[in-house]
Amino acid sequence: MKRALYERSAAISNLSPRYRPHQPVLFHSTVEFECSKENVEKNFSGEGRLTPSGSAISWCAVPEHPMDVIVKGRKQGITAKQRGSHAARCKICKYELFEEFVRVLARSKVTLERDGHASSYANFKEAAVEYQQAMKQFLLIFACWSRTGREYEQFEIQR
To answer: What DSSP state is assigned to residue 118?
Structure first.
């Protein structure tokens, strides 16, 4: 786990202090997770097929809604009528994070427009020179890292 999380990225150099590799504190528990792959396979009767869950739990350090249960990329419990709405988005999705970024910029009195047009998430991301330099270094080590297509980052925040 240590190698996967930070030892490989230790070779990244010449980065802005904001993008230095972090070393999280890792703990090992002796408590066995009853739904682990190993336990499920051990207790599997052989009838049917084992398929991984499409669910995930996301924890964020935000007081109003610190946890989301996400199923196949969507917040659990969302009806078809709610899709695409604020209620349907998890707190860690790009839209929510960009929306918060735009709110912070607005409070700072920073202009969000270029040539009279609001900038998209992709434009802001592209303009972040330090981020682009860090990402280039990161991808040299993690070449198989999956990347979101630019067409999914062409959204703007509706104000």
So the answer is: E
